[in-house]
Amino acid sequence: MKLKIFSVGGTIDKVYFDRLSAYEVGFPSIQTILAGLPIGFEYEIESLLRKDSLDMTDGDRRFIKKRITAEPCSKIIITHGTDTMIETARVLSGLDGKCIMLTGAMEPANFKSSDAIFNVGVAVGAVWSLPDGVYVAMNGRIFDPFRCRKNREMGIFEDT
Amino acid sequence: MKLKIFSVGGTIDKVYFDRLSAYEVGFPSIQTILAGLPIGFEYEIESLLRKDSLDMTDGDRRFIKKRITAEPCSKIIITHGTDTMIETARVLSGLDGKCIMLTGAMEPANFKSSDAIFNVGVAVGAVWSLPDGVYVAMNGRIFDPFRCRKNREMGIFEDT
Amino acid sequence: MKLKIFSVGGTIDKVYFDRLSAYEVGFPSIQTILAGLPIGFEYEIESLLRKDSLDMTDGDRRFIKKRITAEPCSKIIITHGTDTMIETARVLSGLDGKCIMLTGAMEPANFKSSDAIFNVGVAVGAVWSLPDGVYVAMNGRIFDPFRCRKNREMGIFEDT
Amino acid sequence: MKLKIFSVGGTIDKVYFDRLSAYEVGFPSIQTILAGLPIGFEYEIESLLRKDSLDMTDGDRRFIKKRITAEPCSKIIITHGTDTMIETARVLSGLDGKCIMLTGAMEPANFKSSDAIFNVGVAVGAVWSLPDGVYVAMNGRIFDPFRCRKNREMGIFEDT
Fold this sequence. Notes:
Chain A is an alpha/beta fold. Helix content of chain A is 25%, strand content 31%.
């Protein structure tokens, strides 16, 4: 019973920047989250990219797909920026023998009010429970990436 | 898409007591947790009991089963003390047309290091994803209540 | 025994902004901080400005000085951005009959790792304890604004 | 500019115990608090006792006094249980050449709602600012230990 986790950046991993400093997507925050909890399964975390998802290119998505295709573990979580999480999920659809859960956060994991820990929990609960496929785990729900969108005004993912 | 949540007490809801004060299981902490997050589904929370699970009786379990049997919502989470969570889960097995997820926490939700938010996330992710049945969601895993136990020394739930 | 608190903005009050949203200095975070604590003194909080301190003008400082001069309470804390906190402190020097403590934070109060609560504590402990004058309370120290500077590389205030 | 910190136990350092586990006063929490902050002064922390302050004896207080008398540093903070903090402060009065600040917390430092970080801040701000003597720093105020009491019903220290 093993879980492979890839981080590619996004708000969940953002660290603070002030007006005189450079902006930065930091260390995979899912590592800090899981390290602080009594976790009963084996996992491995690998940082593939550290990008705001608005900056992610088609090339980045091909790279992610290549790495996930080569990954022997069948249970996979990807922490990703929310703005283009759905696009990446669609690119990953059709991979055989894998249950892939994309999640992220509306607020950086270092915020007191962040949804990061909860979202990671939702992704973990769903990845063990669902058949192979690609899913988006946000706002306490599990979405089919071909039938959802991010509603920026509401700050929430919803069905289309 | 609606979730019904019952709280019956346990460590997750414990509030502080000092040497000169009375001990107390407080308000359902899952309510505070969900209220602080951008949740995309409808839910309703009902407090059935406020007990340390070591104090829970057969009568308490019959009462919980009666209430859950009468509950029309098919997706159910119960926050429960960890010491006898498995016993309650077994009592609830066999109810038709319901996916019931029991969860709780090793440390009170008000602790900085608590596993409560994560565990609630795991239960939420799993309750939408699994077929009808009764499950225990602890330590980032989903257990069959007839094939797990709480390992007190390790502070973790494990397979039997 | 009363404390008057003015907020003028700065990192301590910053709220999150993502790439597609507008930037904002939010509500005075010292209000949330004190409201959550068992405080044994009377206080009043007034928001004068909501500015990144790099955007603060001479006119802003004249306005702050005017308001503080008119303030009858003799014990005053100002939450302020760290980049020009020292300049504002110097402008306020020479006001009779007032003990004025400027503080702020290196990280927004909403960050888990923020220094905001601690810094507010230091300012409160010092404002009751020192003779009239203007002081900067940062990094657990109380500085004379004419003999300190912000060391940006180290992220710390220090003596000059 | 150096601060010596002694911890003797109390609620601030309490770690969780459940119904089947032994009770424990843990590691000095002030160490974790200060280690996570951008602190601009030198400090040293020493754990003298790990006791609920209700269990503290006259012998314990003599031991604390002996250690503090022998301490060369003139600026001292003691983290202490709140129930008998005032008694210990009185025992320490009359020591020459030292500014001694006793503080603690109404809730363990590991609680999300704990007053520990704030109280430590208040003690730090006051210890640099006040003349030699013994003081109690609680609820954002600095008390003379001969003119205050803990109001248990209100959960607050107050003047007598």
